[in-house]
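User: Here's a structure from my thesis project, written as structure tokens. My advisor, Dr. K., wants to see whether a designed sequence matches the one we expressed. Can you design one independently, without my sequence as a hint?
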């Protein structure tokens, strides 16, 4: 085949734009990539797609440049159409030899840009300090995660930064821990969390082990987005960084900290009949969780079919433990083995899903809000029972949740006299709060904070700052300590297994324990829904919906008047600690009958998300009876279902206009 000239390719692009097949932005980005890329695969893939008239595919790949956001990058690493150049030589697990070509894709071009920009920011941030900046790098089991991680390390070293690279797949929360443990200046994990197999991402952390927030976020974004090419001139040999492999030593240090999450070790070891089925869903979770459960004395089985690293995630439709389907094989094994509890973690092991056997003997899925509430209640209750917390220091105790997480956790905090702090969606904001609490300890007392035991840091936080009891978000992310500054399914598995052991020690099932909590604190139910809108057209539609809700919020929903709307993008919102929340595209709608709804675009997926809330609380001074609770559950769940039906109708009207 004759290779077309740049002029011929440009003519074809112009014609496609003129004919309405190709966006002008796509054509511009295609031209820029051809001029700047060092890869022949890029050019050959573009030529193949142009020759085939695959304009929708080219628009999806090129309608924008994948922008480095506050969390990093995320996008397709395998296109809907795989070109012959991308397919290359057959690889293991059916993976193409090369990642998806495009400015709006996760590929070597964008990984190089992101790493160059991050290193440039670190060198500027660390200027005047002895030694080179240090970057810690981990990756999950997804397609291209290892080569992307190795490229990150190479670019970092050749640009004058030391790189610490895990020797094999590790979880995102272990990367957070490792940044703190190794004294790194930043961290990167190559993952797209629970996204479909065709996606990957570059997730960025700063020196406190938390996801990047301001002012560093804006500084890094500017540096990355100023890089236009994947090529660079390496610094002189004498100025280059070193490459260090991380492995078992870090794992052991992490597991030692995870062990401290167990509040009542004697009770846990006494529940020898508790049986758990665990699945990592082909991801990183088994690296730590399997030995951790054994170390703590839990009787745990794993799902053999899902216990191998596999970026295709071939046994599930989606590797997301929020979805019932992802737990299907584990629940089947649990039924065969008469297990009490099923625990599943996503590919990078930052989210955890649960199913538990109820009093009728069947496995029942537990929602993210319910999982978090059970752990928040148990940890608060046990810390008070043990005398760690009491009336004198309760005001220093804090439960942190996002604004779209159940208010049951707020009710639990209030009953125990703890502070409940609400953040925007995203665990980076919980990590930011943990950083604030650490810095509130006088400098002399916290000089060696990261090397201190959990008991030592707990004493300091209770005396000088705020003691973190629990934190979580409705999307199945939780944490119970500050040694890792991101949601952690390793720690969540440990904590929830203890909750299950406690329930069994009281003669209860996990759902039965949850009903005990509902009877005392009130029945709270939430519904999370999302509408997926992919590609260039989908992104535009999501933006139109967001603008529509902001400019014309509904006046009523499901027969109830809207009594208040809060626009988090335009209003100044101050939390209970006096901190101003950053602006975010989210609208909270309160109805006259007490129900609420929130709408926001996803920051990581092509979705617009809706969160619905309803509750009933018992009269002051008494609990719901079993019969009352049963009837109230039906009423409240019906009210949430009809609210969602009304919102779907409202969305369709907005799309049609």
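Assistant: Designed independently from the structure alone:
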């Amino acid at each position: 085949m004759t290779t077309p000239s740049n002029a011929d390719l440009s003519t074809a692009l112009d014609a496609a734009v003129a004919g309405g097949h190709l966006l002008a932005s796509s054509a511009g980005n295609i031209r820029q990539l051809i001029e700047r890329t060092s890869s022949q695969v890029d050019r050959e893939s573009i030529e193949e797609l142009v020759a085939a008239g695959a304009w929708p595919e080219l628009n999806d790949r090129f309608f924008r440049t994948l922008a480095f956001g506050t969390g990093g990058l995320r996008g397709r690493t395998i296109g809907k159409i795989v070109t012959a150049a991308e397919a290359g030589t057959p690889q293991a697990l059916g993976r193409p030899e090369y990642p998806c070509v495009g400015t709006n894709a996760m590929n070597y071009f964008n990984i190089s840009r992101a790493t160059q920009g991050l290193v440039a920011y670190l060198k500027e941030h660390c200027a005047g300090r002895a030694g080179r900046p240090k970057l810690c790098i981990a990756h999950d089991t997804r397609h291209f995660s290892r080569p992307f991680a190795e490229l990150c390390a190479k670019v970092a070293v050749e640009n004058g930064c030391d790189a610490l690279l895990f020797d094999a797949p590790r979880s995102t929360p272990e990367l957070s821990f490792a940044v703190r443990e190794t004294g790194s200046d930043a961290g990167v994990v190559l993952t797209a969390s629970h996204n479909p197999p065709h996606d990957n991402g570059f997730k960025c952390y700063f020196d406190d082990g938390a996801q990047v927030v301001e002012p560093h976020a804006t500084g890094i974004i500017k540096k990355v987005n100023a890089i236009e090419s994947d090529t660079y001139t390496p610094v002189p040999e004498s100025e280059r960084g070193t490459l260090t492999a991380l492995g078992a030593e870090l794992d052991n240090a992490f597991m030692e900290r995870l062990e401290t999450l167990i509040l009542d070790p004697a009770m846990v070891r006494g529940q020898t009949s508790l049986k758990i089925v665990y699945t990592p869903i082909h991801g990183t979770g088994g690296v730590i969780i399997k030995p951790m459960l054994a170390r703590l004395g839990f009787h745990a089985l794993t799902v053999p079919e899902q216990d191998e690293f596999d970026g295709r995630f071939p046994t599930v439709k989606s590797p997301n433990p929020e979805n019932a389907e992802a737990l299907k094989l584990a629940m089947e094994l649990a039924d065969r083995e008469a297990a009490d509890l099923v625990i599943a973690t996503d590919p990078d092991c930052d989210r955890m899903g649960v199913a538990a056997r109820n009093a009728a003997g069947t496995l029942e899925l537990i929602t993210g809000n319910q999982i978090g509430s059970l752990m928040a209640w148990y940890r608060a209750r046990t810390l008070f029972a043990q005398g760690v917390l009491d009336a004198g220091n309760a005001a220093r105790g804090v439960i942190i949740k996002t604004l779209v997480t159940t208010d049951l956790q707020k009710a639990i905090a209030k009953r125990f006299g703890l502070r409940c702090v609400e953040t925007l969606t995203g665990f980076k904001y919980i990590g930011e709060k943990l950083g604030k609490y650490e810095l509130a300890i006088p400098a002399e007392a916290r000089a060696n904070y990261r090397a201190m035991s959990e008991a030592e840091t707990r004493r300091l936080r209770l005396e000088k700052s705020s003691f973190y009891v629990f934190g979580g978000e409705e999307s199945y992310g939780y944490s119970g300590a500050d040694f890792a500054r991101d949601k952690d399914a390793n720690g969540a598995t440990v904590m929830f297994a203890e909750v299950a052991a406690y329930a069994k020690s009281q003669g209860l099932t996990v759902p039965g324990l949850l009903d005990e909590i509902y009877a005392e604190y009130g029945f709270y139910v939430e519904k999370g829904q999302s509408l997926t809108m992919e590609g260039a057209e989908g992104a535009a539609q999501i933006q139109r919906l967001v603008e529509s809700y902001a400019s014309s919020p509904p006046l009523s929903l499901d027969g109830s008047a809207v009594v208040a709307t809060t626009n988090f993008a335009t209003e100044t919102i101050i939390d209970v600690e006096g901190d101003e929340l950053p602006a975010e595209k989210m609208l909270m709608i309160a109805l006259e009958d007490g129900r609420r709804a929130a709408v926001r675009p996803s920051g990581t997926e092509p979705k617009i998300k809706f969160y619905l809330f309803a509750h009933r609380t018992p009269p002051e001074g008494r609990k719901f009876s079993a019969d009352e609770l049963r009837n109230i559950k039906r009423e409240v769940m019906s009210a949430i279902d009809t609210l969602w039906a009304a919102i779907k109708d409202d969305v369709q009207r907005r799309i049609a206009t």
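When you compare it with your expressed construct, this may help: The chain has a mean pLDDT of 94.
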